[in-house]
Design a protein that fits this description.
Layout (H helix, E strand, L loop, with lengths): L19 E5 L5 E5 L8 E5 L2 E4 H10 L5 E3 L4 E4 L11 E2 L5 E6 L2 E6 L10 E2 L24
Parallel strand pairs: 7-10
Antiparallel strand pairs: 1-2, 3-9, 4-6, 5-6, 8-9
């Protein structure tokens, strides 16, 4: 992200199927936004990061206010905090336009519906380490209010 809070676009790796940008989000911190139209049910891209044990992931989660960790199984997790992939900035929404899938140890994102240029990409995080203690700020009409 640039110092002025402007949108940034990085070179697109092969596993990033659609162009996206990062910019300040109305939901939380930095978000990721479609830089081109994305058709429903298409793979948007994926994120790569450091493979760690779930035990290490849970320790890291207690040490940081913002975490970027996905548990792949009861033994392995991926920490995206040092990743350069823009999809790591995907925020939660109770009415998401994308879904997160774990396939063959990869964390992939697929469009649930058509996504317009400039629209923030969001997923439903599901269960989180916050255990309902963190207020949800997605603004969806049927927001459940907590993560």
């Amino acid at each position: 992200m640039s110092d002025g809070g402007e949108a940034t676009t990085a070179p697109r790796p092969a596993y990033q199927k659609f162009a996206v940008t990062t910019a300040p989000s109305a939901i939380d911190g930095t978000g990721v936004f479609a830089a081109e139209p994305i058709a429903a049910r298409h793979k948007i891209g994926e994120i790569r990061g450091e493979s760690i044990s779930v035990a290490d992931a849970r320790i890291r989660a207690t040490r940081h206010e913002r975490i970027m960790i996905v548990e792949l199984s009861d033994k392995r997790a991926i920490d995206f905090s040092r990743s350069a992939d823009p999809m790591r900035f995907t925020n939660h929404s109770c009415a998401p336009n994308a879904r997160l899938c774990i396939r063959a140890g990869r964390v992939e994102f697929y469009a649930l519906r058509g996504i317009a240029v400039g629209e923030e990409l969001t997923v439903d995080y599901g269960e989180t380490h916050h255990e309902g203690r963190l207020a949800c700020r997605c603004g969806a009409p049927r927001c459940v209010g907590r993560l």
